[in-house]
Amino acid sequence: MKLGIESDLYQRYPDLWRLSIALQRAKGEFALFFVESNVDTLRRELARSLATRLQPLPIEVDLNVGDLKHIPLDELLAIRVQDVPNDAVIFLFGLEQLLPTQSTERWRATLQQLNWRRSFFSKLQRPLVIWLPQYALKLLSAEAPDFYDWYSGVFVFPVDKNTLQYAEQNTFQQISGESVHSGDRSTISEKNQWLHALRSLLAEHTNSDAARGNLLVNMAYLHASLGNYEPALEHYQVALAIQQEIGDKLGEGATLNNISGIYSARGDYETALDYLKKSLAIREEIGDKSGEGTTLNNISQIYDSRGDYETALE
After folding, report:
1. What secondary structure, in 3-state letters, does the chain show?
2. What is the pTM for the complete model shown?
3. Which end of the chain is more exposed for a tag (fewer CB within 10 A), N or C?
4. CA-to-CA distance for 230 and 160, rounded, in angstroms?
5. Is the separation of the CB atoms in 232 and 221 below 8 Å?
6. Residue 1's pLDDT is what?
7. CB-side exposure of 275: number of CA atoms within 13 Å?
């Protein structure tokens, strides 16, 4: 069964053969390959399939935010592979995690390091495969051209509809499937990881559809929970436009309510109240009693914040 699955992968993605051959030919010398795919589960599946055709087995390195605070990437990789056979390929995952979701300061520092230390990677004397989502690879090519232009090959693996739907359902379930959204129960690091995952999936949705709207809403909620109000508002506004376009009244009412929360957090109570009234009207129209109760409660809090306790009580 395993061989059948791997064979199917190679039939679906002819570039997988090309990458396999290129890695085998590059044994014992440095070569830089990029793999672009927007779904992490597909990246891992492709990597596992490649590993069965490579001897010795590749070494997988997963980065996290704290990995490169005190050590350059090339040195970190050298440490991770020091006890690994000299001709083993390196699979590098998680470089996109160094992309900040709000400020570009840390990411630019990493990119600059990749540019000016690129010659040090040749000391690895083995092929390096960097697995990235589309948005991260585009930023890498634009902001670290000296490093990017050094590549031996770039391989793009699009996501099929079934794999994408499964990835989205699984992501939505983990983020908001429990009684509390991840934006209200996760650490800062975990929230940023979710933002990267959602941003990767968003690249697969160029058309206005319910899935794109859902991705944007969840990204906005996570941004708001981190205090990143500008990107939160931007994502909510784009999601709202999609919901209005496709006639998603339930989603529209919820998004209007959430937008009001952004303005309220910024102290703009008049604008917050305007959005809440629009949300209330839609929720009353469609008979969303639960949402109606939530919006009425939020309206009362606005009046309470302004010292209008009679209206708040009403």
Report:
1. CHHHHHHHHHHHCHHHHHHHHHHHHCCCCCEEEEEECCCHHHHHHHHHHHHCCCCCCCEEEECCCCCCCCCCHHHHHHHHCCCCCCCCCEEEECHHHHCCCCCCHHHHHHHHHHHHCHHHHHHHCCEEEEEECHHHHHHHHHHCHHHHCCCCEEEECCCCHHHHHHHHHHHHHHHHCCCCCHHHHCCHHHHHHHHHHHHHHHCCCCCCCHHHHHHHHHHHHHHHHCCCHHHHHHHHHHHHHHHHHHCCHHHHHHHHHHHHHHHHHCCCHHHHHHHHHHHHHHHHHHCCHHHHHHHHHHHHHHHHHCCCHHHHHC
2. 0.81
3. N
4. 33
5. yes
6. 38
7. 23
> Measured at the alpha carbon of residue 20, what is the angle toward residues 18 and 24, in degrees to the nearest 5?
115
Tens of pLDDT, residues 35-73: 999 998 899 999 999 998 898 999 999 987 666 667 788
Residue (of 32, 127, 33, 34) closest to 87 by Cα position? 127
